[in-house]
Amino acid sequence: MPELPEVEALALDLEGRLKDRAIVKAYVVQISALKTFDPPVSALEGTLVESVTRHGKFLDIETSGLHLVLHLARGGWVRWRDELPSIPPRPNQKSGLAVRVILDDESGFDVTEMGTKKRLAMYVVRRPLDVPGIASLGPDPLDDAFTIDVLQGILEKAGRAQIKGVLRSQGTIAGIGNAYSDELLHAAKMSPFKPANSLSEAELQTLYSAIRDVLGDAVERSRGLAMSELKGEKKTNLAVHGRTGEKCPVCGDTVREVSFADSSLQYCPTCQTGGKPLADRRMSRLLK
């Protein structure tokens, strides 16, 4: 799933390709992806792209007073095409094509979604805040307004909720998903199931620094990369997420996993849980 660093880089790449260009046609191939009806998708035709920005994990293409907003969910991605046919595309399960946008020189981009669970979302709105998911976003963790005091307030309000869940809740903090919550908790040497309101002053500072450093470094590494390179860059630089059974790059212990119904997390016992493995919640209670 694209998270804050990848969406930031996608926005930067797309702005360089789209700014001051005219949209000739926008096709919604996977009709379940379209979440709005007013303005219609046809209202994008003939408009000029003014900017491409990010709100949490939402891409926002501003075009002559309208906003084409995309949420790529778990299996979505944006693919640039130097040349696109003018004929309307047909649904193609193999390609996963969901949305196609054609520019004034026949270049453009496809939005694809792989997998059986269709969660990709497209909105055509007059204001970004007309998208419910954007209106309910928490603060951006890389914004100057996201101070350690803001983080402390969020954690205190969350009570004894598990800290990983708090960090990846978009209504609490925008842009952090499953992968980067694993990564920054590993960097902070903190159990993913530590109660949010139990952090000492030193632990709060460590977590805050990890959030800013892990996300900031990922953004800097991704900056300037083409969209086709972003997935590989992310995977290459992950320390624990998606690396079950491999050695922790910090201590050499084996990276372990806890599985849930539709997701999983990875962590290092030596770095994060005092050497104690966390039990799989499907079979027993988590070790404290």
UniProtKB/TrEMBL annotation:
Coiled-coil annotated spans: none
Alphabetical list of SMART domains matching this protein: Fapy_DNA_glyco, H2TH
GO biological process, one term: base-excision repair
Pfam families: Fapy_DNA_glyco (PF01149), H2TH (PF06831), zf-FPG_IleRS (PF06827)
Keywords associated with the record: DNA damage, DNA repair, DNA-binding, Glycosidase, Hydrolase, Lyase, Metal-binding, Multifunctional enzyme, Zinc, Zinc-finger
Essential cofactor(s): Zn(2+)
UniProt cross-references to PANTHER family, sorted A to Z: FORMAMIDOPYRIMIDINE-DNA GLYCOSYLASE
Name of this chain's protein: Fpg/Nei family DNA glycosylase
